[in-house]
Write the structure tokens for this entry.
Amino acid sequence: MVKVKVGVCGFTRSQDIVFTNLRLLEVQTTFYRPMKKITAENWRLCAPEEFEFTVKAWQLITHEPTSPTYRKARIEVAENEVDRYGFFRPTDNVFEAWVVTNEIRKALDAKIVVFQSPASFKEKDANITNMRDFFRAIDRDRKDVTMVWEQRGKWDRKTIANLCNALDLIHCVDPFAEAPVTSVFAYFRLHGSPPGKRMCRYTYTDDDLKRLYEKCLEARSSQVYVLFNNDTMYDDALRFMELVSG
């Protein structure tokens, strides 16, 4: 029997509403600029015991300083340090960004960390080497923490499978775009972008949600996490929860 857990990416409603009606939240703040540890601890205290947080890794790990997301977070990097950030580079700067991310993860008691690499992070030997060096060097308890990788760029599925297998990663996908190469556990991020639609500017139809549930069953996984990340994510998540429970 497949267990499906449904949530949203970020507080699209007040904390009280999210904590009352959902049981899963992917924290987005940690990607742009991680909040203070005490804030994360307060979130954990305010949330119900059965509520689960997942954490999106700080962009200093995955994105280069030329990314517009740095400007959005008002992060400025000195010109002589530009090549020390992003793309999983095994530098002190990137490793420190992981330490910060991991501290917030612990404060939230989160068991899953999502690493989203940008489209500019292409399938190149240097990038593959960076990933291998980074994930083999960081402090991670494989029994306690699941690492999830969402690649935005076009990669060969065999390469993705080899990396996930070697580095103990879960392949994150939008199931409407592709199927994951990993099994046992699945992590879906729904960006509201079916073919021909603008990313995020979309509300899933009832037929879409039925197809989504079918994709959960096809994932060959005993546990599937479904995270909505579109403009109407909260309402879509509630509708999908109702469908799953029914």
